[in-house]
Design a protein that fits this description.
The structure is a single chain. The protein is an alpha+beta fold and 427 residues long. 20% of the residues lie in helices and 31% in strands. Helix 5 runs antiparallel to helix 6. It is elongated. The protein starts with a strand and ends with a strand. It is found in: Nucleus. Its main location: nucleus. One of its GO terms (cellular component) is spliceosomal complex. One of its GO terms (molecular function) is cysteine-type deubiquitinase activity.
């Protein structure tokens, strides 16, 4: 390790820095909220490359300087500029062997880097992992956030925007930072922690969503997409609408029991945009049939989608409605209405939805548009897990907090699907 000092004639001399061997990469965690561990300030934060503590400043009266003197730790990295300094002397350390630390503070990508995503990688513990399929730490009850972030990070167009873009708004910037860490091919550890993102979400949602209280992932996904659209929109368009927005025509008639002739009904028609489609599961049967079958009720996804064929009538309140999809998005989100609130708790519908992960025909304005499954968020005994299709490796993975494993696609539909994302097949 060498530092550069200029002599009285302005000629730079290189002096070797003696503290390179004290750096311990296993202690470094760049996922924590960037605040000083002593003052709790969030400005001018450095990380000690020996013990991993976050400390403010590097002047002679700063917390990092005091830490250097008291603990005999000398090498610090600035978390914003990624510059590395040696204290108490205060000179900048420039050494190629530290580039991996600078990269892991916050990975940066170009389009050429995407070719690295199909390779198996190893962390500092020699644990094998696949970029994009790193576990996310469940701080206490934030599994509903983890599955949504995993889901969005495998929407390829959205992922690429988050990896390549630079964002000034806090929420979008934190989502982008976490997705960049999930796809890191040079990670120090095969998992990430969402501390900084959860703090931002709690502030932006006014504590509606936070890490200590379980919430509905569909409610969170809806809030997140709308919030990010407001931060990203230009001329009322954004990557959110480019990926997920479609249009549906809704025809409605008031229910008038005293009239027999349907021709006397007044019909209203409107076209509405949507970011997701809600599908109603059939009620759970109270009794088994005579052959002791249908213990776990099942329904096909094609049957549920008949709601949008333009002819099937759905009664909502005092209206009868029919739905026709006029324009389908590149990525189609389904929400299965699995939970019903009553006076005491959320009642869960255990119905299994049957489908093929490789092909789905969606009726769109009289034509059939084909999709294939990319993401399946499922309910599992009070918490949530997610199945994702990795476009680079062409394999399916099951992720539940820190647990990640490859899974056969035939096993996916056996879970209680709650949210799905389907990718349009373009010919």
């Amino acid at each position: 390790m060498k530092r550069k000092l200029a002599d009285e004639n302005g000629i730079e001399n290189q002096i070797q820095c003696p503290y390179l061997g004290t750096i311990d990469r296993k202690n470094l965690d760049f996922d924590h909220e960037r605040i000083c561990s002593v003052t709790l300030s969030n400005t001018n934060i450095y990380i000690c490359l020996v013990c991993g503590k976050y400390l403010q400043g590097k002047s002679s009266k700063s917390q990092a300087y005091f830490h250097c003197v008291n603990e005999d730790h000398h090498v610090f990295a600035h978390l914003e500029s990624k510059r590395i300094f040696c204290l108490p002397d205060g000179y900048e350390v420039q050494e190629p062997s530290l580039e991996d630390i600078k990269y892991n503070i916050l990975p940066q990508y170009t389009k050429e880097d995407f070719v690295l995503f199909d390779r198996k990688c190893f962390d500092l513990q020699r644990k094998e992992y696949v970029p994009g399929c790193l576990g996310i730490n469940n701080i206490k009850a934030n599994d509903y956030v983890n599955v949504v972030i995993h889901a969005l990070s495998h929407v390829q167009a959205f992922r690429n925007e988050m990896l390549l873009g630079k964002f000034s708004k806090r929420l979008t910037s934190n989502v982008s930072d976490l997705i960049k860490k999930l796809w890191n091919p040079k990670a120090f550890r095969a998992n990430v922690s969402p501390h900084e993102l959860m703090a931002t979400i709690a502030d932006a949602s006014e504590m509606k969503f936070h890490s200590t209280k379980q919430s509905d992932p569909m409610d969170f996904l809806t809030w997140l997409l709308n919030s990010m659209h407001r931060e990203l929109k230009k001329k009322n368009n954004s990557i959110i609408h480019e990926c997920f927005r479609g249009f549906v025509k809704v025809d409605s008639q008031p229910i008038q029991p005293d009239l027999v002739d349907d021709a006397t009904f007044v019909e209203n028609s409107c076209v509405s945009p949507f970011l997701y489609l809600s599908l109603d599961l059939p009620p759970t049967p109270l009794y088994r049939d005579e052959n002791e079958e249908n213990i776990i009720p099942q329904v096909s996804l094609a049957l549920l989608l008949e709601k949008f064929n333009g002819t099937q009538v759905t009664e909502i309140g005092n209206f009868r409605k029919t739905y026709t999809i006029l324009e389908s998005p590149d990525y189609l989100i389904f929400h299965f209405k699995r939970f019903i609130k009553n006076n005491w708790s959320n009642e869960r519908n255990p119905t299994i939805v049957n489908y093929s992960v490789d092909s789905l025909g969606l009726p769109v304005n009289g034509e059939i548009v084909n999709y294939r499954l990319s993401v399946n968020i499922a309910h599992d005994d009070g918490c949530f897990k997610v199945h994702v299709f990795n476009e680079e490796t062409k394999n399916w993975y099951l992720m539940q907090d820190l647990a990640v494993r490859e899974i056969a696609p035939e096993m996916i539909f056996l879970s209680e699907s709650y949210i799905q994302i389907w990718k349009k097949i373009k010919h």
